[in-house]
Amino acid sequence: MNEARIGPNGGLELDRAWALYSADGRWVNAKRTAAMHLIRASYAPDITSVTLTVPGDRRNIPAMTFAFPGDAEGAAEWFSMYFEQAIQVRYTREGFPDDGLAPGPTIVSTASLEAVCEWFPGMTLDEARRRFRTTLEIDAPDSTGTRGENGYASASEKLPPFWEDQLFSESETTVVRFRIGDVAFEGSNPCARCPVPARDSQTGITNDGFQKRFIDLRRAQLPPWAPAERFDHFYRLATNTRVPSTECGKLLRLGDPLML
User: Fold this and answer.
1) Residue 164 pLDDT > 80, yes or no?
2) First to last CA, the chain
3) What is the pLDDT of residue 146?
4) CA–CA distance from 98 to each of 106, 193, 250 (Å)?
5) 241 pairs with which residues across the strands?
6) What is the pTM of this model?
7) Contact, 148 vs 137, CB < 8 A?
8) Which has fewest Cβ within 10 Å: 72, 107, 152, 219?
9) Using alpha carbons only, how large is the chain's radius of gyration in Å?
C-alpha cells in the first residue's frame, strides 16, 4: 500500500488494532514470549482479512484466515490453540500503542537502520526493519535506501544516520512540531526499545550481547543535534510522536515531504 490514514488516537488506522490477553489479563506479545516470532500474518491487499500460519510447527497448526479486524473471536480460538492456553483477542479502533502519552506513529530514517546494520554484520536492512517495527521510515529522494513496509516520507537532501533525533526537544515538556504531507505531528521522545530487537525476527533466537553493543555504539555515535539529556539510557531508536485530534482521517502518502 502507498498510503495510510490517521486513526482516532493519532496512530495509523488499523495499526495494532488487535491485542492478545492471557487469562490473567496480561498482554501476550513478543516481549513476553519469543514464540510470537514464529507466527506469520499475511494480509489481503485491502487489509480486510488476515491469514495466520506457523511454518514448520511440529503440531501442524492449521493456517486460517479471519476477517480483519472484525473476527477477533475466531482469531482468539486460533491463538489459544497455538499458545496452548486461553487467549482473548480485543479490538479497538484507537489501537493499542506502546506509549500511551505519545501514541502517534514512530519515525526512523533509513540511514539509522543502515547504521544499525553496520553495527551487526550480517543484519540486512529488511531484518532491521522487522526487528525495530517502526511505523514510518523517512528517506531523501537522492538516497540509495529503499522504503520500508510502511513507506517513507522524503526530505530535501540525503539524510544522515539518526536524523530523526532532532524531532524531539531537550525538555520532555516541549514538543517539536513538524508536518508530513498534510498531517501535523508533535515529536515527543526517543523510543525506548524492548527485548524484541535483540532476537532474530524469523526464529526468535536472541543474539547474545546485542543490547550492550547497541547501547555502546548508540552512545558513541549520538549526533550533535540529539538532546543527550533525553537519553536516560541509550537503548533507544526512532522518535515517538503525538498527532493532534484535528488530523484524524487525513492520509499519509508514500513520498510525502517532511517539513520542520
Assistant:
1) yes
2) 25
3) 35
4) 10, 10, 22
5) 187
6) 0.90
7) yes
8) 219
9) 19
- Cα separation of 176 and 178, whole Å? 7
Residue 153 reports pLDDT greater than 80: no
Helix axes 125-132, 110-119, angle to 10 degrees: 100
Sequence-ordered list of residues with C-beta below 8 angstroms from that of 90, at least 6 positions apart, any chain: 18, 19, 21, 72, 96
pLDDT > 70? residue 115: yes
Using a pLDDT cut of 90, give the percent of the chain over it.
Answer: 90
Short-list 139, 63, 67, CA closest to 107:
139
CA distances (Å), 118 to each of 5, 166, 209, 212, 213, in order? 33, 22, 15, 15, 12
User: How many C-beta atoms surround the C-beta of residue 228 within 10 A?
Assistant: 11
Distance CA 125, CA 98 (A): 23
Q: What would the grid cell of residue 43 be?
A: 494480509
How many residues are recorded in the chain?
260
Q: Could you please report the per-residue DSSP string of 99-111? A: -TTS-S--EEEHH
The whole-number average pLDDT for the span 131-158 is 63
